[in-house]
Write a structure and sequence with these properties.
Structural class: alpha/beta
CATH superfamily: Ribonuclease Z/Hydroxyacylglutathione hydrolase-like
Shape: globular
Number of domains: 1
Strand order of the largest sheet: 1-2-3-4-5-6
Length: 191
């Protein structure tokens, strides 16, 4: 089996980073945090089948294109603590854009320590609350997809002043991730 390939697609007005992850020899892929511009994401997918869409958290800028990418059988997964966010414009903070965006409800949830197996890949869930109650990271070997818990390259962390944010939880989550910051490649939600 070859090494996973990661394609970063920067989308939307606040330049959220969506990731397409796949093994070159396979015809399927994972999509992490499809924030906006489904056409750009589909171009990066390059004809592969989406095995699952994984959400690091439930804010609008990380879920906005999920509905356009999904087929009826496509799993859409989020941490159980953020389950209600996609369908609630207050919780998904789409109200900040002047609209009341609602997005597809997740088809399933995960918890800390779960192993997600899709597209020939195994990702370990690390629950890292603080930005939202269910903020999570996905570890794939020495790759770490952090959403807004840690920004790309480890340069900062997500806001804690939005609904469900918590400074104390963010501090504990950053402390949990600290040992991984030197030996993992960080794929953050922005930056």
């Amino acid at each position: 089996m070859s090494e996973p390939k990661v394609v970063c697609v920067v989308t939307g007005m606040i330049e959220e980073k969506c990731y397409v992850v796949f093994l070159p020899e396979r015809e399927d892929c994972l999509v992490i945090d499809p924030g906006d511009e489904p056409g750009k994401i589909l171009h990066a997918i390059g004809g592969r089948k989406i095995a699952a869409i994984l959400l690091t958290h439930g804010h609008f800028d990380h879920i906005g294109a999920a509905g356009a990418l999904m087929k009826p059988e496509t799993p859409l997964l989020i941490h159980e603590a953020d389950r209600g966010m996609p369908t609630d414009p207050i919780l998904n903070v789409s109200w900040m854009t002047g609209s009341a965006g609602t997005y597809p409800a997740p088809t399933g949830t995960f918890r800390d320590g779960d192993i997600l197996r899709y597209a020939g890949l195994e990702l370990k869930v690390l629950h890292t609350p603080g930005h939202t109650p269910g903020s999570s990271c996905f570890e794939l070997g020495n790759l770490l997809f952090t959403g807004d818990t840690v920004m790309s390259g480890g340069a900062g962390y997500g806001r804690t002043d939005l609904p469900g944010g918590n400074d104390g939880e963010m501090y504990a989550s950053l402390k949990k991730l600290r040992p991984m910051m030197t030996d993992h490649t960080i794929y953050g939600g922005h930056g």
